[in-house]
Amino acid sequence: MEKILSPTTYGGAFTAWMGSMTANDVAAYGGLVVAAATFAANVWYKRQHLKLAKEKLEKGLN
User: Fold this and answer.
1) Does Membrane show up as a keyword for this record (predicted)?
2) HEC states along the chain?
């Protein structure tokens, strides 16, 4: 017998996993997603800030 891993198999597994989640699980996973997005945004904005500060410093010294 062949094992066939199709999108239907993954869809069924995902549906079963979502059905087993409690409100606390949803809140925990949502918090992790928000925390990761906030971290990524902070890193991006800090890099932009440092880039602008570096350009400003180079223009001031030249």
Assistant:
1) yes
2) CCCCCCHHHHHHHHHHHHHCCCHHHHHHHHHHHHHHHHHHHHHHHHHHHHHHHHHHHHHHHC
